[in-house]
Design brief:
Radius of gyration: 36 Å
Number of strands: 50
Mean pLDDT: 83
Low-confidence stretches: 752-812, 828-874
Number of helices: 4
Helix content: under 10%
Shape: globular
Length: 874
């Protein structure tokens, strides 16, 4: 390839064009000339067009005109000659007269024509008012696109928030459709090299691909629009370039499907020589409700791609949203499920205005103005306050200043008094969602607790995320708190409550400031992912790393990363299976007093342990944990182990993934080992030695490569440091397909992400009074587990010991079975041959068990009633 290139340019205007002449003769065989635009700061080049003798006439100079558009960053133009199959260049390829037109950003003016022009804010250029808010940076400083009135325009740039804008196919079953695209199209010498919004391959547009011979048009229709008192104007950018172009026709269609043509590409001359985006203005006559219909046809197969981008409608018309949508501030209609999901699905961001990601409490005077409110009406306990000189109130804000504002709790509370506030409703948070805030506690007693809350609105449950008192935070100063919220595809709220446990009054203050949500949005949709390194989510179209596949975490937001067929090859347990509550783990030391047990909701010790599991992120989900109140002086360790795995050399790509919860002021240690048949251990990971996993109230992911040359099993050991101060939990344990059980009889319990709701007698701990009938005692939390029919166990201690003992037991069992069959067969023969009268079942039972007495049905007692009697007697 031979090439020439220009100097570097930058800061071109939106109408920048490049013109040059190309010459090819028959002597050049199948050689081609390719113009390129290199984005110097981004490190890649875009092919702008493609010229060979199928495109231009032999031996005649061909005039080429290409739109370059707006480029703030540095760029270079390259003209490359690419040889064909014969590998030869000759004098039959030539270029001449390269010229740039309209590439300067609009020049500054002292003043503009007031009625018809806008004076740009920074560049001071003059732009026609009918070009305002058209998604094109005509000013060169974007001020013409960031005006307050732009929110009144309907605007679609076809980027990630609304890939197809407000369009849908007229006939979804048709084979020929408008599609969402970016970069160059697949056909040469037709279609745009990039979009109009960004003028780069990263931007998007809608187009038809002329790779087929069809008489049927591609047709798409908009949502219905409501006209105003005067005409509105449809504006869009169209790209019409190719020797075999068809026709683009735009109609307004009323509710009776009567169409009125408002644009036809044939009426605008021959555009095939202009490889550029061109602005269309199409007035729409005022009338009744209508929608837009875009209809495009193919002229010649492979030679007529048609594209549109940056569609806007002036404010005289507005969108009609259906019952499943809400209307954005700019008139756009967005699915209601996308309201308050930590992402700007409205292009003007209006869908997130009532549920911001951070609350500084600086620009509001009341709770309601700050989008928070008291749960109990007329409760004046919580107020927006500045720094005061009151004895127990903060004397500075969380940053150490005197001018900041915060939420201040009452300076006194009565015995057993409860005060609660809650924030806006959110939905569809990602698995890494975290809540961060600052808290201030001060007073004359330690009987008042501040609890952050998460209300699961659809479940009717509120999780108490922590209990903050003088044992948990430092008295009289601002303390930073971090709590993991996780994945919630339904509606939820966060809140805070102050509760006074003991008798007598409490004099003091509680304050909250700088409440923020981090990493709560699901990943954005993308057209493509890194091949071989990322997974393309099915519905959300997000891209996630392959190492996050099948880890029992909904990273995609549609669970497709956990439903992929490859996930069947993983060994995994989420501790939700009632038949195998401990998953594939077993108790390593049945004689130990300290045990791993299955739990849900919060643990019984305050200021430690998870508020909910990692799989479901609500009190109905389960995990394994070690409670730090089950400690004896010489027995502080609890140990579990998996069955044995086959050897896993490095080339097997065997890895363990596990989520751990390590939270408590006097936390012990969590260690994961590989253990071999001879009981020798090799340490894989230890919480003390991993500074990345700090002690925090959040589920954290651990990924461990397992390169083991002999048979092994995984041993998980929790070491408790201080009684009641350091609960340790694990959840969602998975092994990649390179990890194989040593015994084929070993089965992995199937994770059950059930949505079934069981009849319960108690709710989980850490719930508000609105949703529970059982409350916390003054000393420590009530141990409330989900009591179900059948009763779910919270502790399982399967026998440990030598794995080879099972073989001996099986052989002995088979021999005993054969002996029993022989005895039974002989007995039957004797009974029939001698006509012996058999005793009744009562007599048989009395012989086998001398203490047997059959109870009449009226006197029978169930196991549940016996347990209830024992509890009442005790």
């Amino acid at each position: 390839m031979a090439q020439v290139e220009t100097s570097k340019y930058r800061n071109s205007g939106t109408n920048c064009l490049m013109e040059f002449y190309v010459y090819l003769s028959s002597a050049s065989s199948d050689n081609v000339i390719v113009p390129l635009l290199r984005h110097d700061d981004l490190g890649y080049a875009t092919e702008l067009d493609h010229y060979d003798l199928t495109i231009i006439d032999n031996g005649i100079w061909y005039k080429s005109l290409i739109g370059l558009g707006r480029h703030k960053e540095a760029f270079t133009l390259i003209l490359a000659a690419v040889h064909g199959a014969d590998g030869a260049y000759d004098a039959g390829m030539a270029l001449d007269d390269l010229t740039f037109f309209d590439c300067e950003v609009i020049p500054p003016q002292d003043e503009c024509m007031q009625d018809i022009e806008y004076h740009c804010a920074v560049t001071k250029g003059c732009v026609k008012k009918d070009q305002l808010c058209d998604l094109s940076d005509d000013c060169g400083d974007s001020s013409d696109e960031n005006l307050p009135e732009c929110s009144s325009y309907i605007r679609f740039d076809f980027e990630d928030t609304a890939p197809m804008g407000f369009f849908s196919p007229t006939n979804p079953d048709a084979g020929f459709q408008w599609v969402h695209g970016n970069g160059t199209t697949a056909n040469r010498h037709t279609g745009p090299p990039f979009d109009h919004t960004k003028f780069s391959p990263e931007g998007h547009y809608l187009y038809i691909e002329s790779d087929r011979e069809t008489m049927e048009p591609a047709v798409m229709q908009s949502q219905y629009l409501i006209p105003g008192k005067s005409n509105c104007t449809l504006r869009f950018f169209v790209h019409l370039h190719g020797k075999g172009l068809g026709t683009l026709t735009v109609y307004s269609e009323d509710t009776e499907q009567k169409r009125t043509e408002i644009y036809n590409s044939k009426n605008y001359g021959d555009n095939i020589e202009v490889n550029a985006w061109q602005l269309v203005h199409a007035p729409i006559a005022a009338g009744g409700k209508f929608r837009l219909v875009f209809e495009a046809t193919v002229g010649t197969k492979g030679e007529g791609d048609i594209a549109i981008d940056d569609l806007t409608i002036t404010p005289e018309c507005s969108l009609e949203c259906d019952e499943n949508q809400f209307k954005c501030g700019d008139g756009e209609c967005v699915d209601k499920k996308k309201w308050c999901n930590f992402k700007n699905d409205c292009q003007d961001g209006s869908d997130e205005l009532e549920c911001p990601k951070d609350f500084s409490f600086e620009n509001c005077k009341t709770l309601d103005e700050c989008l928070w409110h008291s749960v109990i009406q007329e409760d004046a306990t919580w107020t927006i306050s500045g720094v005061t000189e009151a004895e127990y109130a903060p004397h500075q804000d969380y940053q150490g200043g005197k001018d900041g504002h915060f939420v201040l709790g009452s300076d006194s509370t009565s015995a057993h008094e409860l005060h609660e506030i809650e924030g806006p409703t959110y939905r569809d948070s990602g698995p890494n969602c975290r809540l961060e805030f600052y808290v201030y506690l001060n007073g004359d007693s330690n009987n008042v607790v501040l609890s952050p809350l998460l209300q699961h609105i659809n479940l009717g449950i509120t999780s108490e995320l922590d209990q903050l008192d003088f044992d948990a935070v430092e008295k009289g100063i601002w303390n930073k708190i971090l709590i993991g919220l996780g994945r919630h595809n339904d509606d939820f709220k966060t809140g805070f409550k102050i509760q006074h446990w003991n008798d007598g009054a409490h004099n003091g203050n509680t304050a909250i400031d700088e409440v923020e949500f981090f990493d709560c949005a699901l990943p954005p949709a993308k057209d493509s992912c890194y091949n071989g390194q990322e997974f393309h989510c099915k519905d959300t179209r997000a891209c996630i790393p392959n190492e996050q596949l099948c880890d029992l975490t909904d990273d995609c937001g549609d669970s497709s990363d956990e439903a992929d067929i490859l996930c069947q090859l993983y060994q995994k347990t989420d501790f939700e299976n009632l038949d195998k509550p401990m998953g594939f783990f077993e108790d390593y030391d049945p004689q130990s007093f300290t045990k791993w047990v299955r739990g849900n909701g919060s643990t019984q010790n305050k200021n430690t342990g998870p508020p909910f599991d990692h799989t479901l992120f609500n009190p109905e989900g389960h995990y394994l944990y070690v409670s730090s109140d089950q400690v004896m002086e010489e027995q502080t360790k609890a140990t579990i182990a998996t069955p044995f795995f086959k050897a896993a050399p490095q080339d097997k790509n065997c890895e363990m993934r596990v989520f751990v919860h390590l939270y408590g002021k006097q936390l012990g240690n969590l260690t994961i080992y590989t253990e071999f048949e001879n009981k020798e251990r090799r340490k894989l990971w230890e919480s003390y030695q991993d500074p990345a996993h700090v002690v925090s109230n959040i589920w954290q992911r651990i990924q461990l490569p397992l390169n083991v040359e002999e048979m092994y099993r995984i041993v998980v050991e929790a070491n408790i440091a201080t009684m009641g101060k350091g609960d340790i939990a694990i959840d969602d344990v998975t092994f990649t397909p390179g990890c194989k059980w040593n015994s084929e009889e070993t089965t992995t319990p199937h994770p059950t992400h059930t949505t079934e709701h069981w009849t319960t007698e108690k709710r989980t701990t850490r719930t508000t009074e609105k949703y529970t009938t059982q409350h916390r005692t003054t000393e420590k939390r009530t141990t409330a587990r989900w009591t179900t029919e059948p009763v779910r166990t919270t502790e399982v201690t399967p026998p440990g010991g030598d794995p080879h003992k099972d073989t001996v037991v099986v052989i002995a069992g088979v021999a005993a079975g054969i002996l029993v069959l022989l005895l039974v067969g002989g007995s039957i023969y004797a009974v029939r041959s001698r006509k012996i009268k058999l005793p009744t079942m009562d007599r048989i039972s009395s012989v086998l068990n001398p203490n047997y007495n059959r109870l009449q049905d009226s006197n029978m007692v169930s196991l549940r009633e016996l347990v209830s009697r024992e509890q009442s007697q005790s």
